[in-house]
Amino acid sequence: MTGKTAARGTPYFKVRRSRVHGRGAFALRRIRKGTRVTEYLGEHVSHQEADRRYEDRDERDNHTFLFILDARTVIDAGVGGNDARYMNHCCDPNCEAVIEGKRVFIEAIRTIEPGEELNYDYQLGRSPDDPPDVDDIYACRCGAANCRGTMLWPAKRKPARPAPAAVRAGAKSKRAPAKKKRTERAGAAKSAPRRAVRKTQRTRTAAR
Ligand SMILES: [Zn+2]
Predict the structure, then answer these.
(1) Nearest CA to 23 among 73, 81, 79, 75?
(2) What DSSP character marks residue 19?
(3) Which of 7, 55, 100, 135 could bridge 29 with an S-S bond, Cβ 3.0-4.6 Å?
(4) 101 pLDDT higher than 60
(5) Domain spanning 3-206 has what CATH number?
C-alpha cells in the first residue's frame, strides 16, 4: 500500500494531541515531497479586525489562528477554519506555506512518513510593542537540531532587516508567508515591507 493511487481516499493527516504543542497534525500515509497537503482556511479580515478580535486574549497565550496573507489581509482560522490551523511550528519543518492569489496552501517540502507530525515555520513577526519576554512566550520546543528556540523571526531582535547570516542560522525554509501573533499590531504590519517582499518572492516561486 504505497503511493498515492493505493492510498487515494485516505486523508493525508489527522489531528491529535502533540508532544510539541497542544494538538498537531499527523500523517496518516506517506506524503511525497511537493504534495499540496491542505489549504489554510479561514475568514479573510483586515489586520485591524484581527487585532480587534483577539485584543482581549491573554498576552501569554501563544496560540494563534491568524495567518498574514499580505499587508492588508489576515486569514482568521478561528472563523471557518479547517484542521490546517492545528499544524504546529517547527524550525526544521517538513512543510511550507505557499500563497497563491488570495489563498494559502500547505505543501510538503520533503517526503513525510506515516505518523510523522506535519509542521511548518510560522515565522511570526516581531513588533515594537512586543513584551520583553516575547521569545519566552513563543518559545519553540520542536526538538530540531537547528531549533532557534522561538517561533518568531528573525531569531534575535534586530534593528534592520535580517542579515544573510540570520537566514543561514535559522530554518532553511524560504522566507515564506508568516503567521500572525496576537500582539502584532496593524501598524507594525504596515511598517514591515519585508513581509511584502517575501510574499512577492513566494508568489513568483509558487507560480511555477
Ligand atoms: Zn524550534
Answers:
(1) 81
(2) S
(3) 7
(4) yes
(5) 2.170.270.10
